Amino acid sequence: MSTANEVPFFFTRERTRLFGLFHDPVGAPSSIGFVLSHPFAEEKLWSHRVFVSLARALASRGHPVLRFDFTGAGDSDGSTAHASLETHIADLSSAVTALIGRRPELGRVGLIGLRFGASIAARVMEMAAEDAAPSVLRTAPLVLVDPVLDGAGYLQEVLRGNLSAQLATHGKVIETREVMTERIRAGGVVNVDGYEIGRSLLESVGVPDLVSLHPKAHDGPVLVVSIAQPGKPAKPHPALDSLAGAYAEGERREVLEHQFWREIKQFYGRASNLQALTLDWLGAHAA
Amino acid sequence: MPPEPRAITFRNAEGRQLFGTLHAPAVRRPDLPAIVLFSPGAKMRVGPGRLYIPLTEVLTDLGYVVLRFDVFGLGDSEGELEESLLVDVYSNIQVGRYVADGIAALTWLKREEGISRYIVGGLCGGALTGLLVAERELGIEAILSFGMPVTLDSDSAIPSKYLTRHDLAQLRRGYLAKLFNPEAWLRLLTFRSDLGTIFRSVVAGVTDRLRRSGGTGGAARTATLPPEQLANVNPLFPTAYFSFLGRGGRALMVFSEKDRMLGDWREKFVDLYPEQMRRFAPQITEHVVAGANHVLSERAWQQEMHEVARRWLGALPRP
Helix, strand or coil for residue B85? Predict the structure, then answer.
């Protein structure tokens, strides 16, 4: 039996229509809600059920939760060709407002993000912390799962998807990433798995310090999660350690999971280790 | 301006809540059936690379009501899948796991929107689910199929076992492109390449050349298919397909040139049923998108697919 009502709806950010799914717990809700921030492009679809499972688990513990689709993703309007760091930040901020609209009594709204979605969550939290105006985000928990720190390197990784498509369809690479990058800078778009990368995204996200390691203003608890893959040796994560250390209440933890945001052999209905860690940590820090 | 899409929910036969979006045209056309797009594989109702989003716009512009929804255990819908491997998810879809959810979607359209005529379809597993529903639901008039699978996925220890001539030809072109690539030679000489597949692709190339020089046609191609190559044919497909066509159904079969589904379709289905294919030829429209991959990721491929669908829909008989 479901312990939450799940309500799909559309909300708007300026004139852009965004899709949201509100997990409304049955009974007296917690005063802390959560907005989940999904990763970019096809990583969103591969990780979708992990987000659904986590949202249901949080709602079963009494937390109102909003999952939503960024501009150019899922059922939301727009195209990634016109998306940018700014549109992503505005989308997530609008989603927080939409959750408050559904549950005005919420005292705090935590953010949980994966990969690029984690980077956006970190940026939105920091903007709220630096803003003098009161915010439900201030002192709220923040969970960053494998956040993208180096935006420039990340976009090159994204463009690698186009190289794979070239190899599959032409048997060879006919356009290198350098040429693709120049084409985007000149105002063109590059298609990666059906998602178009345009200049606004390249210029705003393609920076080495998408999430900087400088001391952070956010003073709520922060969990930075690194993913170790089964059967592979554990790696140090000095940058993620530094990121956790940049927060007053930050810590890094590691879980064993396959890279469920990519196409892998496993079907990931839920990331059990990640979900258990997140729920345990929130149980200790979001009371 | 078309009306805003509606986020909807409905229950399947087991009481699980399924989620979808309903898209209506600016002006409703009572003479047109509704179109239901089924989720492909393990992806949700938008399709890989959001393939269904621009397609939905094209269809609503033509006046169709379009429903996209998530089957149980996938996308936003309720339910948990027990499989731990993706290939098992695909296999279960291919034997009709989601037929009941498809029927629930049509029931919802009839009850809530008063629509009782349908076109069903989608990409890959979505197209197959549509066909398996069409076998049972008489209100379905046509199938809009992209990359229809006619075989069962298998986690075989020898993944190259079921390769068609089309697949082997694609691989052979890839190998030829790497002839002057030192890394490829290093892989070959250190036994890291799939030598069996390389050998089979070369043999297939030689036999293809011999066959062409002998002037034989498709029948000879069928005769040369080793039985093991046909072992992964989905036994549900021919029955469903010919049953649907037998009651007057129409089918648009769009394939991508660089997709193994095309070789499977031709070598593991069309070639095996020449009489039935001749009989139903007026009801079947086949189109191959040149150069395209399975998920039609490039805009130009999608636009070609849209144009083909537009023409086909425009030529469908009206009641």
Answer: strand
